[in-house]
Amino acid sequence: MKKKFTLKQIVAILGLIIAFQSGWSQTADKVYMRAEDWASAVLQTKARVQQTFSEHNLPFSTDVVRKGEQPRKISLNVSQLKQLVLITWGTKDGTRNDHSAWVNAKLITKSGETVWLDEMKFKKEYAQFGHPTRNQNKQHKPIIIAGKQYDRGIYTHGNGELIVELDGQYDRFEAEVGIENLGNKSSSVIFKVQNITTSAIANRLSQDFPEEMRYFLSHANTEADIWLTSYDGQEEEAALKNLIAKLEEPAHFQKEMRRVSALAKDKKIEACLQLFKRVLNVYSLQEELEWVKPESIQLAVENMKQDANFDTTRYTSMLKEISHLLPLVQKGIYTEEQQAFVDAEKILSARREILLANPLLDMDRILVVRHKLKNNARIEMGPGIGTQSNNWSGHNSQRKNGFDCEITELSNLRGQIQSKTIYKPDNGAPVSDLQLHWDADRLLFTTVGDNDTWQLFEVKTDGTGLHQVTQSEEKDLNFFDGTYLPNGKILAVSNIGYHGVPCVSGNDIVGNICLYDPKTHDLRRLNFGQDNDWDPIVMNNGRVMYLRWEYTDNTHYFSRIMMHMNPDGTNKKELYGSGSYWPNSMFDAQPLPGKDNTQFIAIVSGHHGIARSGRLVLFDPKKGRQEEKGVVQEIPYRNKYVVPEIKDRLVDGVWPQFLKPRALSKEYFLVTAKMSPESLWGLYLVDIFDNVTPIVQFEGEGITEATPVHKKTTPPVIPEKVNLKDTESTIYIQDIYEGAGTKGVPRGTIKELRIIAYEFAYIKSPSGHMEHGIQSGWDIKRVLGTVPVEDDGSVIFKVPANMPITIQPLDGEGAAVQLMRSWLTGMPGEVVSCVGCHENQNTIAKPKFTIASKMQPRELTPPFDGVRAITFEHEIQPILNKRCVACHDGKNHLPDFKDNSPEKVTKFGKSYLAFHPFINRQGPEADIYVMKPMEYHANTSDLVQMLKKGHHNVELSDEEWQTLYRWIDCNAPYNGVFNANEYCGYNQVDRRQELMEKYNNVKVDWKGELHAYIEKLAAKGEVEPVMPPAEEPVMHQQTKLRNWPFSSKTASRRQNDGGDALKVIELAPGVTMKMVRIPSGSFVMGSENGDIDEYPRSKVKVKKAFWMGAFEVTNEQYTAVVPEHDSRYIAQFWKDHVNPGYPANMPNQPVIRISWEEAMAFCDKLSEQLGMQVSLPTEAQWEWAARSGSEEDFWFGESNTNFSSYANLADKQLANMAVIGVDPKPMSEKHHLRPYFDFIPRSKTVDDGNMLGAEVGQYEANPWGLYDMIGNVAEWTRTDYAPYPYKENDGRNAGTLPADKVARGGSWRDRPEKASSSHRKAFKSWQKVYNVGFRIVIEE
């Protein structure tokens, strides 16, 4: 019998061994104790670690250190140490925000000299996130702990390890440790000092026992090197308990665990590990058997038996045996019945044999990329096997070395897998993007080629004929993600645009699709987008599908759109996902075979979080093109409803994870899968019946890019339609009033289209969302000009080819009715045609003659003084200098619009910072859904409202109005330039132009355009301020009226004199509306203290009493009558949005984005339903009810009254619109950017408790029992916007449509002076305003 030693005995023996070995080097090879079984190896190794530590009174460990705590001091004797190992551990709560630092760290020699740690060379330096930094944090700023700055120190982030060679030269190690200033309240770190690196020992254990170690560490909730320093069995016991909890029937092993837990410490470790191994065996079977589904296998057999060579009899018999054994096995494994284990293996073997008998695998050759991952094989995710490291990264950002991979041919798929190397890089480069030619004789792939750049290579499927395909004289260009075209050319993605992803300051290099001819080496760029193109692939019809990412003023975590185009770049269209939050990403899309098949399969993934892998989903654009509407099914969950979840990290925690699917048929797919966090990346056959069948996996490896070697029908060749001699393309729109973008816009409203060209961010250069302004956009917007819309809504015009453009439909004043928030690009000579404005791609355009179809394309009318980028300094400041600075000169309490010198933090002009708060715009991100027309129309801005009313007689010329509208519609930028850094030795602005001219015959000299315009301005001379004509003084009328005003007590009495003052009406079962009776009477309407449209005041008589809604109409009440309405959300500031914004569609919030026409239609429906005369209140009824006897600004006082108990207005809460971060949250009051994003004009002293539209009835009612008459949301009245004095019978209350309508009461965004009982706002009758709702009246 083999003798077993206790932990104490092992420690004693090891002590003798160590004492005997003089000069022993304490490395992992010496400490690690190899054994045949995992439990013994762990036990003996941990004992040896403890003995090694005990010789030097190590390890040293701090308690848990948190943000804000004073640094811990360390002082240790290291005179006998050969190396010093410094470890930071993020504790069991994880490593997010664990910004740790060793400060004032030093070694003192035996002669008393000090050697600073930051000056020493490390044998190893590791940080989980990024790299350790010396004397600065990761943002290259001084290290600060608990408010104190340290000049010396080593900063790490997450779990980290530093190893310093000592060789007995030093006497002491001293340091202070703590959480660096970048951390937050969740930061928690334990600092450890050791003499050996237990991480290397843990790696040896993982190398010998990969499966056991991966499962153990994932269930122990600790790091391997930390675990190896423990010796009390607690981690082993915790891991065992957690694994047992995952068993469907844990009782047997829970009993076993109680026995093990009772053992002494020196026996518990080994017993726990041995039991863990037994539980793991059962758990692994449980996981495998979960995918044995007799019903699914039966469906596959029924499908496969259509092939004459499929042995239906044999496999049906095997399926019956599976069905018989499965319930027995699923019970027996949990009590460790040996027969159950035998039968389990029989089931799994039979399942595999049946499903791999699929005739589609008869080709018996699959090309894959095998990645040798060693210890990390069960840890690595997609980036470890060749994908990009983020879902927002392009191939340019992928590392080019450090891989051990090869293209391999797998054969004998149904038996003992055979493997043959086709190609293996000799430079450690990755291999990716495998594309097999339709003839199945050659293969296209990406790896590192000339000049250390990404290039496309080709090799024959037998491994011969390797050569680099892409040959370009441009040594700075990369080519990757290639695909064959039926005409012999190829598509490749390239950095030819010199674009960088803007939200990371261009540090991620953008790739756009190019067309390349391998025979002539001709190169032409096809796509000109802001961000990356991914995964081009030829569809069954010969067109090309690809994934496009964009975030021109859109919610960029969700804006990856599946597109399709002709191989020459013409006829680009959305295929799936435009205007959708779900799915965030659709990577590795593959069309399903079949001539008329429109389905495709793709990997649905998130934005942040798990990279490039995710859920396997089958789509059909014919079924629908947005969110879940086109989902055929998720594989392997055929009966599961796919929820269109709005989530940044969409697939975090989702298992199994899939990568790189390949369609064998409409039903069967090869795919790379990792079935659980502890699994390997293996090759699987999956199907629409929910079968998931492993073909092969290799311990220590990951398999991806499965490519079956068989011939396929070559798709049809689509003839090229471009004219490369032409520098323009033609845009034809059949009817601008068709489509979601202009739904509800009355015909005749849109007079022109404004055409804007984008110029996108440069590589590794300033380009963030604040580069162009506060709540502005990401890109340079160059206004190319305007073109008239014909009377029937059609339009045809010329634009520059090869240029991303966006279109804005303009009203008669030149303001945008809608914002496109995307772009289109015409190829040379192409006619780009659209049905309308964001029409549904599944609708078929009705052929019809239009005015535009019978005419030659119009030329654009350029802006006055030429095409140029929109800037504040050169567009708006001259207007301010002429029209405003006579008063706004900085010499009074008014905003200073004169001083445009750079402000020190933002570098924006001071006048810009004073002016932009009066502009309502969407900012860099807003709701990804198609917005309602006029959502951000200029008339929703304070500035325009004031000017239109006649702000102190200031009048703008037509040209100035056009300039102002252009600036507002372009997101109110300050800058219109990029300051591009040099890259690869090139001036990027020049290099981009050079490549554009050479490969696309187009040049965009945005710098030259702007310079020319500046020279024109200078030539006009200095702008002289113009003092507007003096205003006529307000004639203060002594408008006296008997019994006006009256007290709240009188108001209550008069209300009750008419009988019941309250009634409730029912809108739908369970949905009611409370009405209060408003008595008749007379009052003085208007104000002499407000805007010019509020006077002259007049005596108005409300002749009849009426009933008025006690509250604004709520979402619940409105949707009870109009169920399809959704008030949606109020957009956040900043960027990095993970949801549509702040909810405005909760049941008890007031309904918004309801036009006057819709509000009146609601009233008409209620009139018919209730048999009563329901309507909107007239202006007179509204003001009479709002005042409820008061002649002051509000029923509760004047405009300077503390309104916090009475109204939801623009108050201190609006400061919380200043947000920051991913899933933005309010900035702290001390944040240096808060003053710049807390810009909405508001009360600085009052806090009413709500930032945005609140649930109705939270504030005090006025004397007549009406809630929220002031604030919350403004309210439609029945009345046309007409001058005062108010006259009841002049037709203003007739309900005619062409006139603007009046909204009253102000909203959460209005400060008191813009929300008084007399204040008026005017909007179009069809306009759906973000802060306007309504309440009803019932007239007697």
TrEMBL record:
The UniProt record lists the keyword Signal: yes
Signal sequence, renumbered to the chain: 1-27
Comp. bias regions, Basic and acidic residues: 1301-1316
UniProt xrefs under Gene3D superfamilies: NPCBM/NEW2 domain, paralog of FGE (formylglycine-generating enzyme), TolB, C-terminal domain
Entry GO MF terms: formylglycine-generating oxidase activity
Domain spans labelled Glycosyl hydrolase family 98 putative carbohydrate-binding module: 111-249
Annotated stretches, region: Disordered: 1290-1317
Keywords from the UniProt entry: Signal
Domain of life: Bacteria
Name by which UniProt lists this protein: SUMF1/EgtB/PvdO family nonheme iron enzyme
Organism: Carboxylicivirga sediminis
Organism ancestry: Bacteria, Pseudomonadati, Bacteroidota, Bacteroidia, Marinilabiliales
